[in-house]
């Protein structure tokens, strides 16, 4: 497959490519094997892990704070509706146990989450991204308010979605921001997250037949909407550019994806990714690395958690 190295081995917010060369050389292989077998057991795993990383990084940085169960769920990051449908958090703890058998107390949950998301893309026929390591885990837990403030709600238009990415201050270009939205190529969205589309159908360019199908599958106000999901594009288990194709056809689920083709700024970038897979993969790879450096804790900041869902002091 593709293997993109984004920049030289220089400083990435204090992270480095060889961070575990001496202390845990087997790390990347352990994570790769784990994700490969977890994805065979449940093909929804890669999409879940990619979203898990994104939603961790957007709330106070890539510090594995999304994995903590310190407060009751409603008061934690997971209590935010923007984290509705987040799954597979426990897999990071399972991989951490595997790693700790070989290299006890060396590797952070934050780094394992980044590597797991990287493997999620690769196992779905996407690029294999080389990522710098050395993140430490947060030594505090954040709340549903922190998550609400930092995560785009489901009904966010494209400019505002890009604004959330801009706020990470990791230097994402507009092309890289649009490539990151391409992560929606994996997985599904719940009916509950697209209900607003029925309140104001005229504000979103939607293919009529597709809109009627949505109304049938996701009836307004139905309790079933919290359990019913639809694929984000025609190949929900393959990391490809089909999400952009569906967007241009007016058949995407999330408003950000539909709006992508309506917004002049972004409408010219999406077709480039559709017709040039290599460009999409390269741009996504550099964006992924930048995102993974957002507000990272390094050196003596934070901690290496013993268990991913608990702070060490507690």
UniProtKB/TrEMBL annotation:
Gene3D superfamilies: 1.10.520.10, Peroxidase, domain 2. Keywords: Calcium, Disulfide bond, Glycoprotein, Heme, Hydrogen peroxide, Iron, Metal-binding, Oxidoreductase, Peroxidase, Secreted. Substrate binds at residue 152. It catalyses: 2 a phenolic donor + H2O2 = 2 a phenolic radical donor + 2 H2O. The record marks 51 as: Transition state stabilizer. Heme b binds at residue 184. Residues 14-312 form the Plant heme peroxidase family profile domain. The keyword Secreted applies. Disulfide bonds join 24-103, 57-62, 109-308, 191-218. Its cofactor is Ca(2+); heme b. One of its GO terms (molecular function) is lactoperoxidase activity. Ca(2+) 2 binds at residues 185, 233, 235, 240. One of its GO terms (cellular component) is extracellular region. Binds 2 calcium ions per subunit. Its EC number is 1.11.1.7. It is found in: Secreted. Signal peptide: none annotated. GO terms for biological process: hydrogen peroxide catabolic process; response to oxidative stress; response to stress. Ca(2+) 1 binds at residues 56, 59, 61, 63, 65, 77. Belongs to the peroxidase family. Classical plant (class III) peroxidase subfamily. Removal of H(2)O(2), oxidation of toxic reductants, biosynthesis and degradation of lignin, suberization, auxin catabolism, response to environmental stresses such as wounding, pathogen attack and oxidative stress. This is Peroxidase.
């Amino acid at each position: 497959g593709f293997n993109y190295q984004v920049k030289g081995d220089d400083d990435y917010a204090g992270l480095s490519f060889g961070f575990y060369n001496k202390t845990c050389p087997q790390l990347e292989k352990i994570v790769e094997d784990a994700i490969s077998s977890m994805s065979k057991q449940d093909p929804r795993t890669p999409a879940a892990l990619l979203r898990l990383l994104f939603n961790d990084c957007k709330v106070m940085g890539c510090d594995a704070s999304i994995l903590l169960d310190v407060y009751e769920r409603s008061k934690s990051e997971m209590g935010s509706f923007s984290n509705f449908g987040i799954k597979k958090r426990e897999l990071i703890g399972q991989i951490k146990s595997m790693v700790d058998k070989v290299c006890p107390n060396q590797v952070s949950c934050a780094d394992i989450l980044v590597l797991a998301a990287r493997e999620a893309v690769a196992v779905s026929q996407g690029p294999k991204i080389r990522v710098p390591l050395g993140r430490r885990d947060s030594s505090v837990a954040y709340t549903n308010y922190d998550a609400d403030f930092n995560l785009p709600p489901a009904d966010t238009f494209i400019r505002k979605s890009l604004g959330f990415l801009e706020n990470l201050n990791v230097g994402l270009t507009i092309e890289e921001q649009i490539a990151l939205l391409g992560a929606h190529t994996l997985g599904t969205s719940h009916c509950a997250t697209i209900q607003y589309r029925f309140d104001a159908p005229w504000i979103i360019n939607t293919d009529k037949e597709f809109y009627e199908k949505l109304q049938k599958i996701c009836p307004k106000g139905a309790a079933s909407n919290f359990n019913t999901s639809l694929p984000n594009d025609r190949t929900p288990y393959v990391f490809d550019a089909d999400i952009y194709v569906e967007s241009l056809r007016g058949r995407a689920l999330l408003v950000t994806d539909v709006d992508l083709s309506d917004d002049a700024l972004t409408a010219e970038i999406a077709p480039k990714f559709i017709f040039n897979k290599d460009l999409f993969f390269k741009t996504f790879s550099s964006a992924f690395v930048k995102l993974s450096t957002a507000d990272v804790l390094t050196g003596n900041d934070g901690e290496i958690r013993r268990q991913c869902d608990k702070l060490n002091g507690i």
